[in-house]
Design a protein that fits this description.
Layout: H1 3-7, E1 10-11, H2 14-22, H3 28-42, H4 45-55, H5 63-77, H6 81-91, H7 94-97, H8 100-116, H9 120-137, H10 139-149, H11 168-185, H12 193-209, E2 212-213, E3 216-219, E4 224-226
Parallel strand pairs: 1-2
Antiparallel strand pairs: 3-4
Amino acid sequence: MGKGESSSKKVIGREDWEKRLSDVKIRKEDMNKLVMNYLVTEGYVDAAEKFQLESGVKPEIDLSTITDRMTVRKAVQSGNVEDALEKVNDLNPEILDTNPQLFFHLQQQRLIELIRSGKVEEALEFAQEELAPRGEENHQFLEELERTVALLAFEDTANSPVSDLLDISQRQKTASELNAAILTSQSHEKDPRLPSLLKMLVWAQNQLDEKVSYPRINDLVNATLEDPV
């Protein structure tokens, strides 16, 4: 952007901007519902119970179901996929029956855990019997299977091109996918609303940047206004 274009933009000072923000009325009840939605979706049972007492906002689903869902999620996060599969089937067997991609990713995670434990022969047998048939039916599954089995080709897996599969973030990714499926089966939103609103805020600020200079919120955690440059 050239200097002439930049100087032609309207500049709004902090005092004026804060006044405009204060003129936007948001009900406390709506804010409380957003917080409760986040706690319920992400599975913070204790926090949701305390927040219910403090705010009077009732969760949209039975909090006891969150405990079951979090037990399943934690099993995947700790690498105990077999236990997670057993528990999710106890919750609702249709979750896996109707979601072949999720089931494949859970089986893929089981394979990763076998490789992580150094059980090479068992890992190869599991890949051949449980995952290879699904890979033959789905090209995407086959690519993911080949990438996972490639872990066995490297002595130093930490510095291999597929090292990310052994990272804790891979467990988290699988656990989140399973968590979303359970939420959907319970007719509940799979994603909390609060992060979506923050994404909308970033988008709105980017659009506004083209027309005006104003105190931006760059630090989303603390919601700190920064004076226009």
